[in-house]
């Protein structure tokens, strides 16, 4: 009788725990419930059988990945797994390393970016990048934002003024900086510098924004501002973000790709990756058993 009572109480406790467990949730859980189905979204990037070598080091292995328009796609994985190499391949910045060799295709807007006739300059205009460390130019805030537009031939002061305001508003930092546009960007806090770098990227009106661990050097408050900004930007842009922060990936992204040893180990909806991954190694990484 005593054993039956204990067994019943244990069962009730387990049921209670299951019912009250707190799942990993995202910053925009309510929005995701009403999001556009994947089948109705365009594929902006399609990576097909991509391999990449740094000399003899086989860094990316048979990558096949479709990235959807106006999504935030997170790339996660342990150090050295190939995630930063992959996003630098999407705008061919990885080719600045002399020993790099690639095989396979990356289709962006229905064109293979590795085709000999494809313009690398056009690609890097369409696909902007925000780096791990804020990297403003040693110039005024105004000159940082207008640098790209001026290179593209825009000289009209009124037009440049409009671009500066629009870009800083887009990076959610206009109100903080509108009276300081002549200030050297180096005088800003790290979080402000990173948002100025995002505004500088927006100034050339890209189609895609690549972010390589954009908040790893920032304090928690600045990190939150950048994460909130990412949610706003995906309405107009497609965003691909590399992050070591599991909670950040869960908060900001729609899709998550888990890279391991140069391979895409698993790629799925972020909610599924973090609540019910299909692969044991993904589960072990998400739960902190390695990495």
From TrEMBL:
Signal peptide residue numbers: none
Which positions are tagged coiled coil? none
In which residue ranges is the amino acid composition biased (Basic and acidic residues)? 1-15
At the top of the EC hierarchy, this enzyme's class is hydrolase
Q: Which residues form the ABC transporter domain?
A: 45-286
Name by which UniProt lists this protein:
Phosphate ABC transporter ATP-binding protein
Q: Which organism is it from?
A: Staphylococcus nepalensis
Which EC numbers does the record give?
3.6.3.27
